Amino acid sequence: MLSSKEPLNPNIYADINELRRLQYLAKGFSFLPQQPVNSLLSGKNSSKLRGRGLNFEELRHYRPGDDIRAMDWKTTRRTGKPHIKVYTEERERNVYLVVDQRSTMFFGSTNKMKSVIAAELAALIAWKVVDSGDRIGGIIYGDEQIQLVPAKRGRQHVIQVLTEIVSQNRKLKTGKTSINPSESLNKALIKTSHICANNSLVIFIGDGHGWNEQSSQLVKNISQHNEMIACHVFDPLEQALPKMSQMVISDGEMQIQFSSQDKNIHAKYQTSIEKLMSQYEEMARKYRIPLIPITTMVPVEQQLRKALGQVGK
To answer: I want to staple 151 with a disulfide (CB 3.0 to 4.6 A). Which of 94, 95, 166, 229 is the partner?
Structure first.
């Protein structure tokens, strides 16, 4: 854990002041049901957002022009007069950010750490959500700990969510962890399934390391009762090894040197990356979950606007 006296590089560790300033860039995108035609969240490309849900308001007599799909046939048969059920849209819904701050996120090749990008992405979404009138909450998880921030309204509550993200982020450091990535990931998904019982929007922000069949099953259970969006945070170096005759990689305690030009090494690395991505993409396709790729190399707000079809706004 970092000492509070150490100077912090905002590209390496998330800074609460930087996350607060992102509220002024949280525009040009939306998580409401009405999406631009080019948006990854539009019905053309994926499942439409369900919106805030409906509340039953009253049962009344049918009037000319009413939608017959709202007819209450049981009451109509019992009374002999046509009745309809009237619903109103909920004014707000719960939006939960599930934010990955594990050691696998503490990586970045040239610009920012994945963990910082995840924090910035969460901040942009949180500011936009409260501006839309919805409640925002957070499930922030590291290698060993999961922190829950219940969903509430208001800009001051966004600060609480972001403060918890920064707190988890500051615990990151180089070195090994004894926790299996699959274990920490699935514990976070189990927590999410318990918290998000019905009609929430769940936005998963992470790198997907440790994804397995249990993860997919947990996501299936969550998506049956909630709307889900997955944001895959990655660094270009993870997608393809640079070709170097002598490459040194360290975990902070030990290091190895090898040639990334070795065809066998290169092939094994690409196979492992493709396996991870294929699991992610298969899960998203199977359960109709929009999958938004987020790289560490481009400002997050630009990527959100492009993914949600509002470039230039």
So the answer is: 94
